[in-house]
Each structure stands twice: as structure tokens, then as C-alpha cells.
Amino acid sequence: MTPVKILSVDDEQDLELLLTQYFRRKIRKGEYEFYFAHNGLEALTTLLKVKDIDIILSDINMPEMDGLTLLTKVNEMSNPALKCIMVSAYGDMGNIRQAMNNGAFDFATKPIDLDDLSVTIEKAIEQINYIKQSQKEHSQLESLKTDLAVAAEIQQAILPRVFPPFPENDDVLDLAALMTPAKDVGGDFYDFFRIDDDHIGLVMADVSGKGIPAAIFMAVSRTLIRTIGLQGYTCDVAMNKANELLCGESVGAMFVTVFYAIYNIRTGQLDYCNAGHNSPYILRANGNVEMMPMSTNCIIGIVEGISYESSTLQLGAGDTLVMYTDGVNEAFNTELEEYGEPRMEQALREVNGRTCREVIDGLLADVRRFTNGAEQSDDITIMAIKRKA
Question: Could you give the CA distance from residue 240 to residue 261 in angstroms, rounded to a whole number?
Fold first, then answer.
């Protein structure tokens, strides 16, 4: 137990003996630790030497530097956990009132009633402990904020951020993506990677939950799916393997919805497996906007031993595939109305034919207009790929 450090400041020598005798049990037990000074200047010197004084018990009328001046100097230290108890004659109420107005915690009158002083010190200790606990919690919160900021930077860094990602294929391929977490860190992620000269893997996923647990599970999921995908497995086999591995890693019944696709940049063929994720949209070159079929596969990471099925679709020249997480269609405005698929489809019609970046920016801008300043309730992630030729 750390002792409460009390600095007694009084030019009367007898007070030192009186205090040490009255509080002898607490001193022996290590509960109190007393320091003594005989004027304000000596007190300031002691405060410089002993950094963690908790309570100052100061007389008001002293030579060289009086108690009111000392109180002013203590206030300049801006330490809310340092409490001053002022002492003066009973008739000196003017100075006592001034001391209280200047921030003294409490006062005592001479001759000092040591029983009453003991209660006053205990009250001061309660206040000090409360302030110190608050300061500790504040420091922990600031540390957590710093850690979250670093985690957010790390999370963004592990997502592909270089666009265009495949400049050698710019003549046939356009691709863009973004992720905007609802909190400092999120559970959504997108990914894309080259499997071979003709094929690239595409991932759009949403981990259950929010915050740090979701962010950690997101990093694990992204790494596993990418590692499996780079080995060239078909979409269904890749999801089977990812599910088995993530079931072993899942804590607290966390899971992830995934849309995983392998795109042939030469032919425009898209093989895909939708594991419980939102159905992407296809923006056709003729102006039509089509939602892909709903997923019939289970989410990943919660049920072992199940099988996933894949499907195939064809992108024609000028067609764009838009993948997203439910932070888009389930965005709410200040009236608690949901953005919904009809609004999303209309927004996509308005940006059809544009570059992938313009499609994403246009859709996000429409969501922002709808929410009209309402707090973002979920991560928003969008990725678009367009067959240019």
C-alpha cells in the first residue's frame, strides 16, 4: 500500500510533535507519511523534492511566505489530486474564506481539533483517490485511443491501396475499392490478387461484430482466404478450406460472410462462390442494373464439414461488377429509415458507364446524402471491377 503523503506547513514547532503523536498508528502501519516545513518557501522546496505529496496542511499566517501565497503557488502546479487544508485562528474567517474561494479543499481552526482534522484528512483522501483513479482511467483511454489509431493504420495498410492494381492490364480491366470503418477499426475487408497471367482473385467480406475483435478476426480471415486463393483452388474448394480453417480459429462464435470470385481477364468469365454475403450488382453496358442471385451457401467459420457450391457468370465488354457490404444498403438516416436496395439500384443506374472509382464515389456520395449526417452504424466497403474490352 502506498502511504498518503502529508506536508504540514506551520511555524509552530509543537505541531510536528502533536501530529506525529496523534497519527502514530497510521504512521507505523505505513498508511500516512508526514513531511514538515515552517513556511511557504520551505514547503515549495519540499514539493520540488517530494513529487507525490497528496495533502498540504498549511497555516495561513507564517513568516517569509504565508499560507495564501503558498496556496496560489500550489494552484499554479495544476495538480487536481493535491489537496490543501488551511489552518488559522478561529477569528480569522476573512482569510479562511479567501482560502476557500482560492481552491482550498477544507479548513481547520486553531487550536486544532485533531479528531476533526482526522475526518477532514480522510475526506480529502477519498477525493484524492477518486481523482487519481479518474486520471488513471483517462490515461488508459488515451493509450487505447493511440493503440486504436495505430491499429486503424495497420488495418488500412494490409488492404490493397494501389490503383490501378494491374497496370499491365489497363486496356481490359478497371478495378477500384474502398473501406470506411464505422469505428476506428472494422470487420469489413476487400482483397484482390493475381493468381496467374489470366486470372485474378476477388474478395469482399464482412466479419460479424465491430471494433477490435472484428478487426483481429478480419486480419486472420483475409490472410487465410488470400493464402488459399493464391494456390489456385476453384472458388468452392477455396471456401471449403477457408471454412474448415476459420472454424478452428473462431472465438465467441464469430463468423464471416464472403463473396469470393476468380475473374478471367481475357474472357470476362467470373467463377464465384457467395458464402452468405450480400448479392453483388452487375451494371450492364446497355444500362441495365442486375442483382446477382441470392446466396444459398452458409456463412464461413461457424459450421464445420459443410460444402460450398460455386457458379459462373459472364461479363461483357463495358459491364461492371459492384461488390459491397451491408453497411451500404443498411445505412440509416436521422429518421431511422434504411437506405435499402431500391435506392442503391437507382444510384447505380445513375453511375453506370463510369469508371470504377466514379461508380464507388457516386454510390458512397448518395449514401451520405441519404444519411444526412447520421452516425455511421456499420462499416462501408465497396469494390468494383469493369471489363473494358
Answer: 14
Cell numbers describing residue 317: 465488354
In terms of Cβ atoms closer than 10 Å to its own Cβ (0-12, 13-18, 19+), residue 146 is: exposed
**What is the distance between the alpha carbons of residues 200 and 272, in angstroms, rounded to a whole number?**
12
Same domain, 126 and 91: yes
Q: H or E element: which one contains 227? A: helix 211-229
Q: Which three cell numbers stand for residue 349?
A: 443506374
CB 231 within 8 A of CB 241: no
201 and 163 housed in the same domain: yes
pLDDT tier for residue 213 given thresholds of 50, 70 and 90: confident
Contact 387, 175 (CB under 8 A): no
What domain range is 102 assigned to? 4-137
Same domain, 77 and 107: yes
Q: At 158, which amino acid appears?
A: I
Mean pLDDT of 133-154: 78
pLDDT, tens digit, for every residue of 228-250? Answer: 999 999 999 999 999 999 998 76
Dihedral sign of CA atoms 228, 180, 314, 312 in order: positive
* pLDDT band, residue 252 (cuts 50/70/90): low
How many other C-beta atoms are found inside a 10 Å radius of the C-beta of residue 126? 10
Query: Whole-angstrom Cα distance, residue 178 to residue 364?
Result: 10
Predicted confidence at residue 148, as pLDDT, reads: 65
